[in-house]
Specification:
By secondary structure, the chain is an alpha/beta fold. 29% of the residues lie in helices and 24% in strands. The radius of gyration is 24 Å and the shape is globular. Keywords: Acetylation, ATP-binding, Ligase, Nucleotide-binding.
């Protein structure tokens, strides 16, 4: 790709002149320093040529014939949803949760929620009832937006015990809404398609994203309307979106990537975004890229590894020449995937790194720069990254190249999370002075490229999803046979890591295949297939500290044949 054809032709020069004030000026704003994510995504395009451009190219699950929705039509749908919230008495600042597969009215609900000044929380539809209920109990939404199928399967049994939810809006077409729910399509049809988007303070909450921790309940990371500054800038300069591009982010809106870069960034940059209702299918994916002439493609390493495994014949049978820029996120992208992209697709994948807490891309490989296979790249303009080692009094920064340390970021970028809901102490502990502690270990080479080394905690990264071992252990411990449970991530060729559980049984229970299947079935039913363990091993006892805490680190070391490290706190007689 010629440097002159990209939005960021010279990284060093751009970084030297960049300021977040400059990035603000690329947005419309709403006067007096106020703004709204939905206004930047939709309203500001009205009265321009972008209004009639296709915003969403929807690919129905059972068809390859797309349904196009213009920016104007999407703005009207979002306005109808905002009016529905207003008519129902939902107040600005209250929370609206979305639990839905990828259909157009989910996108209208997200943007309508933001128009009305409410806080939107996406939920992953592959979650089981327990993770969904946990997140609802923590965030106390006033409204749950979902489909009839997901409602009956995952919500109906417990929603009556959740006093905060005043309205359950079903956004698929219904003959008759089940008791306790309302037909959103009918409500939207009766509502006005005009709505004066609410001007918000930049620090007003806009999005609540949940992420898993090693212990306790999921953490709700709160993001504000100012985050749109980061989303827009990185969409333009990191993902190299040009107005009118056909863009495809394969991430589900239930995750932060699918919200930040599957909704907000593409719309603020005036591109046409492909929304595929179907799940992964390699032939379908290649056909979408070919037929829809996708120019910018943002996907996950797990998906790339699945494509590689299926061989080069399938992509070579399709015309993929429309692809100008390919990027990857969610977990480290192995060097072989970059090389395969060059060889088979004619372009390298550009890996980038960020977290739920950062709200947007922080470190990336850029269109105009050399891609170093296996590297996360360099920090985005406006973000200062460093490596640090912990000391008794705080942290000290590492200046030597190729030393491993914890990746830290100087706070102050617009999409930085502003808190963990109901967990002020945990939020405070995420910072040392002006530095945000990411919990990721990395190294930096002599040229300033960052390389991911691993997590500094027990969180499992599977197919780009963060899974807290505590959630899985808690469900397994509910089974009457289980005395103890320890959960770790084990390497997987496709998913990066998968969940493996170690279980110690109570006296009188037999460790056999029947019980193993029973435990796996319980976990899949309660947690969903994305979180449940793929493997369960039985042990007479699990390694514990003297205080009784399961030593997941030791389980992992023994499983993978790694050094056990310091075992001074190990309770005597800990299982091998």
């Amino acid at each position: 790709m010629q440097a002159s054809s990209v939005n960021l032709p010279d990284y060093e020069q751009f970084c030297a002149s960049f300021s977040w004030a400059q990035a603000w000026r690329e947005l419309a704003g709403m006067g007096d320093g106020r703004l709204n994510i939905a206004f930047e995504a939709l309203d500001r395009h009205m009265g321009t040529e972008v209004a009639e451009r296709t915003a969403i190219r929807f690919m129905p699950r059972d068809s390859q014939t797309p349904v196009d929705i213009s920016y104007r039509a999407l703005n009207e749908r979002a306005a109808r949803f905002a009016n529905v919230l207003q008519d129902l008495g939902v107040r600005p600042g209250e929370r609206v949760y979305g639990l839905s597969h990828r259909i157009p009215d989910l996108y209208a609900a997200v943007l309508g929620t933001l128009k009305h000044g409410c806080v939107f929380t996406p939920l992953f539809p592959a979650f089981g009832p327990e993770p969904i209920r946990q997140r609802v109990e923590i965030g106390e939404p006033a409204v749950l937006v979902t489909s009839e199928r997901l409602y009956r399967k995952k919500v109906a049994d417990w929603v009556a015990d959740t006093p905060s939810i005043r309205h359950v809006l079903l956004i698929d077409q219904l003959d008759e809404a089940p008791p306790g729910t309302e037909d959103a399509a009918s409500l939207m049809a009766a509502a006005s398609d005009q709505y004066a988007t609410r001007a918000m303070d930049p620090e007003d909450p806009a999005l609540l994203h949940f992420t898993s921790g090693t212990t306790g309940k999921p953490k709700g990371a709160l993001h504000v309307h100012e985050a749109v500054v980061n989303h827009h800038m990185t969409g333009r300069y990191v993902l190299d979106m040009h107005p009118g591009d056909i863009y495809w982010c394969t991430a589900d809106p239930g995750w932060v990537t699918g919200t930040s870069y599957g909704i907000i960034a593409p719309l603020t940059n005036g591109v046409t975004m492909v929304v595929d209702e179907a799940e992964f299918d390699a032939e379908r994916w290649y056909r979408i890229i070919q037929d829809q002439k996708v120019a910018v493609w943002y996907t996950a390493p797990t998906a790339i590894r699945m494509l590689i495994k299926l061989g080069p014949e399938l992509p070579r049978a399709h015309d993929l020449s429309s692809l100008r820029f390919m990027a990857s996120v969610g977990e480290p992208l192995n060097p072989e995937a970059v090389i395969w992209g060059r060889k088979v697709l004619g372009k390298p994948f550009h890996d980038n790194w960020w977290q739920t807490e950062t709200g947007g891309i922080m470190i990336s490989n850029y269109a105009s720069m050399e891609v170093r296979p296996g590297s996360m790249g360099k920090p985005i303009p406006g973000v200062e990254a460093a490596l640090a080692r912990k000391t008794e009094t705080g942290i000290e920064l590492i200046t030597e190249p190729d030393e491993t340390g914890e990746l830290v970021l100087k706070k102050g970028w617009p999409s930085m999370f502003r808190g963990y809901l109901h967990q002020k102490e945990k939020y405070r502990n995420s910072f040392v002075g002006d530095w945000y502690l990411t919990g990721d270990l990395a190294r930096r080479d002599a040229d300033g490229y960052y390389w991911f080394v691993g997590r500094d905690d027990d969180v499992i990264k599977s197919s780009g999803h963060l899974i807290g071992p505590f959630e899985v252990e808690s469900v397994l411990l509910e089974h009457p046979a289980v005395a103890e449970a320890g959960v770790i991530g084990v390497p997987d060729e496709i998913a990066g890591e998968t969940v493996k559980a170690f279980v110690a049984l109570k006296p009188g229970y037999q460790a056999d295949e029947r019980l193993r299947k029973e435990l796996m079935g319980l976990a899949r039913k309660r947690l969903g297939p994305a979180v449940a363990p793929r493997q369960i091993d039985f042990r007479e006892e699990l390694p514990r500290t003297r205080s009784g805490k399961i030593m997941r680190r030791l389980l992992r070391a023994r499983e993978l044949g790694l050094p056990e490290g310091d075992t001074s706190t190990l309770e005597s007689g800990g299982a091998q």
